[in-house]
Amino acid sequence: MKIFRITMPLNVKSFFKMKRRILLATVLLMSISAENTFGQATMSCKQIVDKMLNKIDQCKTFRYDLVQKERQSGKIAEASQSVKLNVSPYKLYIRNHKPNDGAEVLWVKGKNNGKCLVNPNAFPWFNVNLDPMGSLLRRDQHHTVFESGFAFFAKIIRDALVKAGDDFDKYFKYEGDLVWDGRKCFKMVIIYDEWKYVPYTVLKGEDLNDIAKKQMVSEYMILHANNEVDDYDDVSEGQKIQVPILYAKRTILYIDKQHLLPIRQEMYDDKGLFEIYEFHNLRVNPSILEEEFTESYKDYNF
To answer: Is 0.90 topped by the overall pTM?
Structure first.
């Protein structure tokens, strides 16, 4: 007579063991998939750069806190501000934190005769309208209000890609992953050892802004490389000046893995550190009310 044993508990135990193994395998596959989505295993250095540029093109609005460190008169000066930006049509609000805490700038395309509305929060203690390309607003600044956000930076990188040509791997290097400001990032380095100043002959009607835009370099760098030039419009047709062949000799980027945006940018020239830009508390494509780009908005002091 056969004895039939009740095997249900063993089967149940085996079932749960198998289920646990399947679950662990699924989690492992998901982990590998997530790593491959942003990791070096499936994305080359060139792919990371291309995805970053594509992401910048897709962005419509930003909110962020910017820390900038710029070389001025041989020393690094630090500033910080909060920014709201609508990419197209271009609308920008800036509130300074350092220096001159509380100063505000508002620029909206098609408004205020093309001028920036400025609350200096200092003497003369009333709002002023300033030319965004003028010396007063640009004093001790590497860039104008029109270079806020990431679009201008994307133009710099695209120009570097053109100059690199088929030698991309010679100039662009992926140097691993890191965590910066609580964000997982790719670290990218662009080194252009051939960087130098070359002679340039000013054409009719050009100023330093025109030249820099055409050559995709820093007009501030041009200004301070030519002792005979006192301001951005202090050049004339036929004048020979020195202009760098690329925006920077060495660039270090921290590219946020979530947004694929360069949240830390560090640039060097032949003298060393030239500028650093750090984007903190970055929000990509947030909703920004139309009234937030008006001087009467409740949180502003215009």
So the answer is: no
